[in-house]
Amino acid sequence: MDSERDRDRMEMTKFFMMVVFLGTIMLWIMMPTRTYKNKWQPYMRLKFGASTYFGATGTTLFMYMFPMILVACLGCVYLHFKKRKSPHHIDREIKGGVWSALRKPMLVKGPLGIVSVTEIMFLAMFVALLLWSFITYLRNKFATITPQSAAADGQYFIKYHIWLGHMVIAIFTAHGLCYIIYWVSVHEISQISLVAGLVMWATTYPAVRRRFFEVFFYTHYLYIVFMLFFVFHVGISYTFISFPGFYIFMVDRFLRFLQSRDNIRLLSARILPSDTIELTFSKNPRLVYSPTSILFVNIPSISRLQWHPFTITSSSNLEAEKLSVVIKREGKWSTKLYQRLSSSHQIDRLAVSIEGPYGPASTDFFRHEALVMVSGGSGITPFISVIRDMIATSQNQKCKIPKITLICAFKNSSEISMLHLVLPLSGLQTELSSDINIKIEAFITREKEPKSEATTEQIKTLWFKPSLSDQPISAILGPNSWLWLGGILSSSFLIFMIIIGIISRYYIYPIDHNTYKIYSWTSESIIYILVICVSIMATSSAAMFWNKKKYGNNVETKQVQNVELPSTTSSPTSCGYNSMREIESSPQESLVQRTSLHYGERPNLTKLLLGVEGSSVGVLVCGPKKLRQKVAKICSTGLAKNLHFESISFSW
């Protein structure tokens, strides 16, 4: 009954979101037209822009900023109800159909990566809106240009800076170059926002991002400079047209900052022969996250400044009080961590800070009859959490789960030790349930036969001593985080409007009287930005401390009391599954029986994918670019209409 009520609430919330969103889109479509300028805009300025509390800023604040904040709040309510929806309610994917066709990959190779039909449609609509706005704006503007108006409009700035990603910077660059010529002519060089944007853009390319992640990560803090001078450039009034997304980002960023202040309780580290580490943290049982989520990790003893994202391999449904991430030894930071943990020196404690988890609000893998996961090397890590979540569902809810096929390719035998991470050290029943239909096809591409010396390599486990100051990983806004986030967005925006209204009415208006010529744009912009920051910081801090007081203290005390510290151990399990008989636990033995090893060959993906039976087969892939493209191409060719490519980004 509650599930049906929540479903009705979800549909109603979705309806209101669509109404508000489509209304805003309509405004964007009409904005460059003469109808908007001559009829709509004067009316809106009369209704919202003549107030002594907000002035001309009120027009964009209420017509553009407020609707999108409302959509965000409604979205939080929708996700809250979706989270509460009964897990037993599973909508199976129907073979064929419009929605199935829209999810299929349309472009496999190219600068945009793997793009589905739906994504192409939205991109086309965005480009169409962009071209429509630009062409209509130029046509109307050039039609009214005279020598007198050109001189009068010398300070008029283009308003439509709404582009995302590369398109944002590309258009911003062209826009900036034109204005640099103008600034030079009037001796006013202030293109700081453009320079900041170009630097951020340059570090987004894979060659820079992957080799120098910290350069990419910290260069992106130039967004503060970018947005600050963007506001100074166009004025706070026009900023509110494109500001809602950044407002929501500011809330999220400050919540992440509050979370990163805590020291997190690190329980153990498993060191695998494949130059891989699994870190296991203490977790608040109320923290729930979706499979394929990531966690940002900072270890001050390695570097105080560097934060790196790692895939979560645990399942919050299977391991209520633990959270694990896998770190592959590749860059300088991970190499230092691996060397420190694998050395002979005893480490009692390792100080760690985190941000996250971050991931999809929900995953609908259960709608498929079968699920195929294709990985290359360490690309297996996102799928470990998916498999563990499936196991937890079969144990706890006793509902039918999809048939699971894991196709993984490794270069060497030592990397097969990654398969030991598929099952957790604890939290399982005596053996895998018969309801779990799982098959693993493992390919070792650079070795033609098992190596005998592999049997002597061991998995080393380190256990750390907890400190009273260490805390478990918790949801910063508690178990009802979506409702709290919606509350922060709405309350901070309301507080901002109240404070700005008072300042405008009793400070700015007596000076300027809505002439917009006496009180400077820059001063007004600074006041607005400061009030926004204060509103967000106050509401976010209050929400965080309230939830921490209510949900955090008892759990932390209980977990510290229940911590048992085994000694450092080395498991006799080999890095190769040719010695699987040495695995003692029943769940591991059950998993070994469902694993097939193939030496000296690569997986025939076409044969393997087309051979999976089921009316609906979900396909996920994580690994090298060519592997992702090949799997996407197979799913898009139409050779098997039951294959549904699940577009999930695992790439950092």
TrEMBL record:
How is this protein situated with respect to the membrane?
Answer: Multi-pass membrane protein
InterPro entries of this UniProt entry?
Answer: FAD-bd_8, FAD-bd_FR_type, Fe3_Rdtase_TM_dom, Fe_red_NAD-bd_6, FNR_nucleotide-bd, RBOH/FRE, Riboflavin_synthase-like_b-brl
Its main subcellular localisation, reduced to a broad class, is: membrane
* Cell location: Membrane
- Coiled coil: which residue ranges? none
> Which PANTHER family does the UniProt entry name for this protein?
FERRIC REDUCTION OXIDASE 2 (PTHR11972:SF41), NADPH OXIDASE (PTHR11972)
Q: What is this protein called?
A: FAD-binding FR-type domain-containing protein
Please report the organism this UniProt entry assigns to the protein. Brassica napus
